[in-house]
Design brief:
Blueprint lengths: L7 H9 L5 H19 L2 E4 L2 H6 L13 E5 L26 H8 L3 E6 L27 H8 L5 E6 L5 H7 L2 E4 L19 E6 L2 H11 L13 E6 L8 H16 L3 E6 L2 H4 L1 H16 L1 H7 L5 H10 L4 H17 L9 E4 L20 H6 L3 E8 L5 E7 L5 H15 L6
Parallel strand pairs: 2-3, 2-4, 7-8, 7-9
Antiparallel strand pairs: 1-3, 4-6, 5-6, 5-10, 9-11, 10-11
Helix pairs in contact: 7-15, 10-12, 10-13
Length: about 425
């Protein structure tokens, strides 16, 4: 048995019904990871098979009972080290789980392994390769979490996003990535990058699996797709020229298919103040990162990459008025964006500039994700096409703050309308 043919929902239902032995399933996932990992390089640490099987207890037969969950290696776990992608923390063993890990365990989920992240969730790439072509980047910073779901090693993984670290790798790896509204998924016990922009999120292989997992974590019933006639705003941005021809064509074909499916589609153009927000975005993350990494630079400078050095150095150059002005602009735009959701239910845009770039030296451009992180809005990416190089291409849907259920409902309708096929 190979686990990659099972969706998260199927695996849960079969385990709960007694049709699938959770220990057999975990053993299959463990063996599958062992086969793929020498080329994929997606894990920093994996639980031993003995530990995995021991953790399938009879006392906690929750809805995720026996389901292996991969965890980005900035999220604290007491069972496995948390290295934060840095040699400074190579032997760091947390004394308590992050809050999200506690929730996963309460649901019966099994912590399968810690996945590769860029150093402190910033630009210095890890060893993970793209699951569709090892010569291309998987994106970042949640590179390992996206790759292991794409390969079907696990049906669910955890990631984080400060600029584009869930949406972009999900798009590059051909999976569904969901960045929940700011602070909706608790990030206590997660190594900080920029506390004003840090989000937690999930990776699955379908929107149905995503909605299932998200509602379990939120401890509420699964919401049905009640939005039968959603109004979708096709977002036009000043940086659309950065899109590859294939990515632009993918969006064009998406619109055609949605219109044929009877879905209301209209164009939305945001004013220039939103494009101007990018200076404020970097002011906030660089200023806050400079505080986070001050100790590292003072005491472990020889173990810090040039990426983190440059990040902290730039952050130290901002003045207090500049930082405060950036946060004020953030609040202003968070209020201003609400007016656009009076005429549309969701925005549709690119998740990335195109297919995963060639090479492993960089993780791609977050230009199509950063604004939504700045505003704290929920966003999801869905793989919908393939490039001429046989790499995934996707779309991104962005909803109103704390309207996460609506985003997932509309995403399911869009996925169905586009007749998205899953394969690896």
């Amino acid at each position: 048995m190979t686990p990659n043919h099972l969706s998260l929902i199927d695996a849960c239902q079969q385990i709960q019904a007694g049709e699938l032995d959770p220990k057999q399933y975990l053993r299959a996932c463990f063996d599958y990871a062992a086969t793929l990992e020498p080329e994929l390089h997606a894990f920093v640490n994996r639980a031993s098979l003995e530990t995995l099987l021991q953790n399938v207890g009879e006392k906690n037969r929750g809805p995720l009972w026996g389901i292996p969950v991969a965890v980005k290696d900035i999220i604290n776990t007491v069972d496995l080290p948390t290295t934060n992608g840095s040699p400074i923390y190579v032997n760091h063993q947390p004394t308590s789980d992050a809050e999200i890990i506690g929730l996963i365990k309460q649901l019966g989920g099994i912590i399968f392994g810690k996945t590769v992240t860029t150093e402190f969730a910033w630009r210095n790439p890890g060893p993970t390769v793209n699951p569709w072509n090892p010569l291309h980047t998987p994106g970042g910073s949640s590179s390992g979490s996206a790759a292991v779901v794409a390969k079907g090693i696990v049906p669910l993984s955890l990631g984080s996003q400060t600029l584009g670290s869930i949406i972009r790798p999900a798009a590059y790896c051909g999976v569904v990535g969901f960045k929940a509204s700011y602070s909706l998924i608790p990030n206590s016990g997660v190594f900080p990058f920029s506390h004003s922009l840090d989000h937690l999120g999930l990776f699955t292989r379908s929107v149905a699996d995503m909605a299932f997992a998200f509602n379990l974590i939120m401890a509420r019933p699964l919401q049905s797709a009640t939005k039968n006639a959603p109004r979708i705003g096709i977002l036009k941005t000043p940086y659309d020229a950065k899109m590859s021809d294939e990515q632009a064509r993918t969006l064009e074909l998406t619109v055609i298919k949605l219109v044929k499916a009877g879905i209301n589609v209209q164009e939305v153009v945001l004013p220039s103040s939103y494009a101007a927000a990018f200076d404020a975005i970097f002011c906030v993350i660089e200023s806050e990162a400079a505080v986070v990494h001050q100790h590292h630079i003072e005491h472990h400078g020889n173990k810090i990459s040039e990426h983190i050095q440059a990040l902290a150095e730039k952050g130290a150059t901002y003045t207090a008025p500049q930082y405060i002005a950036a946060l004020q602009l953030q609040k202003q735009l968070q209020q201003d964006i609400k007016q656009y959701f009076k005429t549309v239910d969701i925005l549709l845009t690119a998740p990335a500039t195109g297919e995963a770039p060639f090479g492993l030296q960089a993780t791609g451009d977050p230009i199509f994700c950063s604004l939504w992180s700045f505003l704290g809005l929920p966003a999801i990416t869905i793989p919908v096409a393939r490039s001429r190089n046989d790499l995934p291409l996707g779309l991104q849907l962005v909803g109103q703050f704390q309207h996460d259920d609506e985003v997932l409902q509309i995403a399911k309708l869009v996925e169905d309308a586009l007749n998205v096929q899953r394969s690896q």
